[in-house]
Amino acid sequence: MTLEDEDAFVAISQNSKYQRFYDEQDCHPEKYRELTRLFIEQAKEHPRTSFQLAIEHKEDQCFIGTVCLRLEGEQQASIGCGMSRAYQADGLILEAASALVEYGFNHLEIHRIYAETISRNRPAIKLCRSLGMVQEAHLRHNRYFKNQWWDTVVLAVLADDWLARKM
């Protein structure tokens, strides 16, 4: 990500459907401006432990989303993403996430990649399953925001399972 992506990144976060599964404080525009600067700084780290990448539209190279792989030790990593509503049905997020998972397993020697999301976040769960992830846990009333408790689920894929799918 670059500073040029900041306004589009903030705009994605301000969509009401995007905000459904996030704490109000996490969706404040200034929070996303801070995150943009953090992601830029993390990209300069050596060794690199966070890969927050911009997803650009092929035709006009405009920022339409982001996908991230965060190394967490013991050959494990978490993955997350966010995409402009206008492009969510185009399969671009799956393409970007697949490329990052592939990179993690083949170049970073990761053993397990996981995602944690609100259990009602069907698009995120569908994406995870499309990546070959299986649900490992359902955590009841694990997060509290918007004046209610939310369940979360953890989905993961192992390197061996990923490679077997590719053959």
Task: Please describe the topology of this protein.
Elements: H1 6-13, H2 16-19, H3 29-42, E1 50-56, E2 63-71, E3 76-83, H4 92-107, E4 112-118, H5 122-130, E5 134-145, E6 148-158, H6 159-166
Parallel strand pairs: 3-4
Antiparallel strand pairs: 1-2, 2-3, 4-6, 5-6
Helix pairs in contact: 1-3
Characteristic terms for this protein:
single chain, 167 residues, alpha+beta, Aminopeptidase, six-stranded mixed beta sheet, 6 helices, 35% helix, acyltransferase activity, transferring groups other than amino-acyl groups
Structure write-up:
The chain has 167 residues and is of the alpha+beta class. It has a single domain (3-165), classed as Gcn5-related N-acetyltransferase (GNAT) (Aminopeptidase), CATH 3.40.630.30. 35% of the residues lie in helices and 32% in strands. It has 6 helices and 6 strands, in the order αααβββαβαββα. The protein has helices at 6-13, 16-19, 29-42, 92-107, 122-130, 159-166, and strands at residues 50-56, 63-71, 76-83, 112-118, 134-145, 148-158. Strands 1-2-3-4-6-5 form a 6-stranded mixed sheet, with helices on both faces. Strand 2 and strand 3 form a beta hairpin. The longest helix is centred in the middle third of the chain and has 16 residues, at 92-107. The model has no long low-confidence stretch (mean pLDDT 92).
